Amino acid sequence: MVAQNPLFSGRFTFKKFQATVINDIWPEVLFFTAVATAVAVVTKLDVKNLGINSALLTVLGTVLGLVISFRTSSAYERYQDGRKMWTNINTASRNLGQIIWIHVALNREDKGLQRKQTTLESIIEKKSLINLLQAFPVAVKHFLRGEQGVYYEDLYPLISFLPKYANGINDPTDCLPLWHSHEHEQQPIRSHVDNLNNDDEKGRRHERGEPTLVEGKPDSRSSSRVGKKRKDNFDPEAALPDVESEVPLKPARNPPETSIFDFIPLLRFFRWVVRVILKRATPGESRHRKARHVNVESNVPLEITLFLNNYTAFLMRSGLVQPAIATALQGNLAILQDTLSNLERICNTPLPFAYQAHLRMSLWLYLLFLPFQVVTPMGWITIPGTAFASFLLLGFLEIGQEIENPFNYDLNDLDLDYFCLDIQRQLHEITTHTNPDPSEFIFSALNQPFAPADKRSAADIVAAGENYQTPEADANPGMNSIRRTLVRSWKNVDILTRKAY
């Protein structure tokens, strides 16, 4: 399957060229084409013959092509591994959701470590844990993109009910790692329940003109999202809980702004030179900079798996799941943790700089001497030939660098937002299952279990009595007739499903 072409889908903008590598390699292609033009002009106008022996052209070109092919293949392997890891998250999330929703008992009595609990309370408990499971891939998405913390529009509403303080007391010094953020450490984090119970706080928010959560009001939204609309009217965060946050929530998707430096990479060098000059021109600046404060942020996906493991331990201690089910819960949680480690490995293990630098310099030298080696046999064709060769080789080299880390916002990266929304849809679909008794739907007038040999409904077959007979009224009713019907069904299916060629 080939990825969708972003150049010709939707409204055309120059930003779509970022899906290709043209905007990254065109300065280099232009430079080597200019060199080829100068060599061809000087040689063909008989100013001086700049042609050199091309004995090394074939050998070096073959070796360089193999190295570039290996570079691109290794980068694509990382791309594929990233996709496989997200498939593992999808599968494990579905399995955990089904086990929690179907196998965890609803009836709770005061027995041993169990506490008496109503069916409604049990359903709320299980749905809340599945919502927490839904938060795991979202947290992984932000983690891979280097977006620290939990205060995002698509993450905070799913985990806002988790404990915030070690001792259960609203004390900023006891803030748990999940909620620790140096960006907001001077501002205490208050829970939504505390805000609703504090009339003075609500009054102060009203005086400041800040929105408050109104119970039962469908338009009540997180304070950081009020009044926000996307241009395409696509707002998946509207399906999330409406909770209040004392910390302004960041957007669920925050790609870097496109600038002229993305289309003209050469300007990045001049920007760097200007910055160096301005720094040197700043008077009174000490050469010895103060040590920067290192921001310590929690590993949010790991924190979520800790709560999920804690729930599994609670189920096992309370005897609410069978040992086999507990083993399945632990196995799928281990898959989530193992997948997180593999994704972190892919994200934080770039190709060594020495390899990248040596490969790029080798390619530059090859393309620089290419016109001198082909100008004698090719003449003016040297110019388009060099342009094509530089476009081809530099393009493959840049593609390897483009897909090496497939978790960012580039158009060629994996669509992590789509994966998270897909898991969200599947988990909500699981929770619509009503866990019915099989007898409620099996013995239905719409069920024909023995078709195609016997197209009577299950209700009609049961009504006919215990001694089953085929529609042809065999002489030996009972199990013999049932077996005979199943054999006939197999014969009919085998005949009807084979296409005659």
TrEMBL record:
Transmembrane listed as a keyword: yes
Biased composition (Basic and acidic residues): 186-222
Subcellular location: Cell membrane
Membrane topology designation: Multi-pass membrane protein
A cellular component term, taken from the record's GO annotations: plasma membrane
Keyword DNA-binding appears in the UniProt entry: no
Transmembrane stretches, start-end: 25-45, 51-70, 363-383
Sorted UniProt keywords: Cell membrane, Ion transport, Membrane, Transmembrane, Transmembrane helix, Transport
A GO term for molecular function: chloride channel activity
Superkingdom to which the source organism belongs: Eukaryota
Pfam families assigned: Bestrophin_2
UniProt region (Disordered), positions on chain: 186-251
Database matches in PANTHER family: UPF0187 PROTEIN YNEE (PTHR33281), VOLTAGE-DEPENDENT ANION CHANNEL-FORMING PROTEIN YNEE (PTHR33281:SF19)
Protein name: UPF0187-domain-containing protein
